[in-house]
Write a structure and sequence with these properties.
The complex is a heterodimer of chains A (191) and B (165). Chain A has 191 residues and is mainly beta. Chain A contains two helices and 14 strands. The longest helix of chain A has 8 residues, at 12-19. Chain B has one helix at 6-9, and strands at 13-22, 28-33, 38-48, 64-69, 74-75, 81-82, 97-99, 111-113, 126-128, 133-139, 148-159. Chain B is globular. Chain B starts with 5 loop residues before the first helix and ends in a 6-residue tail after the last strand. The chains are: A mainly beta (191), B mainly beta (165).
């Protein structure tokens, strides 16, 4: 399905005609998973046409609370995954995962370093005792490879991602669906 | 380049099976009966288990996986294969068990693991006909460590009758 540049002659005219009907596109679910509850992330396929998903990538934060003796709860980034998700095709609510899956098992690059954490640049020390409450957060991961996930999402449907967060702080996550938009007939009439 | 065949694309559905197994015995099992109406093409297996325990003690368990083909009553390989050789991140050295801090405990055993990067994998392409059972044996653990293992079967549900799912 991909274009192999060195294996075939590219005909600009036919390529342009095809591109007017089908082209590479990315859809994103960007949301914040509320602490200790389930949050639904959603993106719309829209009425442009069907969307053939080929790969998914994504990243998320890894945050939790520690208690400073003077300031109370402080958010730190300790690298522990707290999110698990269930992907659903909004058409007929078809579940694409049998159960909630830890996001670090399915998403690349996965963990990202959070600017919201007290230990993002240096280790965090307790305000009263100067004891180290959290070492400096590790670097975030880099994109290693997109995860194969081939599925045809219908026009006008929604892609739903229900995410449970068992941390005691809110956590941001983003998932990108890489694929091909297949324009509906009405959208390409006359091309 | 070819236009995309919608009739073909409509016939497959990605379906991921996830299970956290509590490792109590020297041999543990994963079972999943493929639903009637379609077969299951297992593309990849992701396995993850802690290599650092909650007290910070490092150990190096080697979990081994044995796939079985129930339909013809045979194993798919002669010997169990170490998970880290084909199903990463397996027991990556940084994976630790962390007690879930939450008031809401969504995990099976009240613990989380450190986040790990999805590394490369080996494609399996094991096909299970409908009604078959996906069966995996897990060995390599002792009675203490690792305490559990996450298994993620990544594949596609494929209808027996084209276009009917």
């Amino acid at each position: 399905m991909g274009v192999r540049i060195f294996q075939q002659r590219i005909d600009p005219a036919s390529l342009h005609t095809l591109q007017n009907r089908q082209y590479s596109e990315k859809l994103i679910i960007s949301n914040t998973a509320k602490a200790a509850v389930e949050t639904q992330g959603k993106t719309s396929v829209s009425n442009l046409g069907h969307f053939l998903c080929q790969y998914i990538t994504g990243h998320f934060e890894t945050l939790r609370d520690v208690t400073d003796s003077l300031l109370g709860p402080i958010v730190i980034d300790d690298g522990v995954n707290h999110l698990r998700g269930q992907l659903i095709d909004g058409t007929g609510m078809r579940r694409l995962f049998q159960d909630y899956i830890p996001l670090d098992l399915i998403l690349s690059p996965g963990r990202k370093k959070s600017n919201d954490a007290a230990n993002v640049l240096t280790q965090y020390k307790d305000s009263g005792t100067a004891a180290v409450l959290a070492e400096q957060a590790d670097k975030g991961e880099a994109l290693f490879f997109p995860h194969e996930f081939e599925y045809l999402f219908s026009a006008n449907s929604d892609i739903l991602l229900n995410v449970k967060n068992d941390s005691d702080v809110d956590i941001d996550f983003e998932v990108v669906f890489h694929g091909i938009r297949i324009l509906a007939g009405a959208a390409v009439a006359g091309i | 380049m070819e236009t995309i065949g919608l009739e073909i694309a409509r016939q497959i559905t990605p379906y991921y099976l996830y299970q956290r197994l509590h490792l109590i015995h020297y041999r543990e099992y994963f079972n999943y009966k493929v639903e009637n109406g379609g077969g299951y093409m297992l593309r990849r297996l992701t396995v993850k288990y802690p290599s650092v325990d909650a007290r910070g003690t490092t150990y190096n368990p080697q979990i081994e996986i044995e796939h079985f083909d129930n339909a013809v009553n045979k194993a798919r390989q002669i010997n169990p294969i170490p998970a880290r050789l084909y199903a990463p991140p397996a027991g990556h050295e940084d994976i630790a068990v962390i007690a879930a801090p939450s008031p809401v405990d969504n995990t099976a055993f009240g613990v989380n693991m450190t986040s790990s990067q999805r590394l490369n994998h080996k494609i399996l392409n094991y096909y299970f006909p409908y009604g078959d059972t996906i069966l995996v044996h897990i060995t390599g653990q002792d009675t203490t460590n690792p305490s559990y293992v996450d298994l993620l079967f990544e594949g596609y549900f494929m209808p027996v009758k084209a276009g009917k799912i």
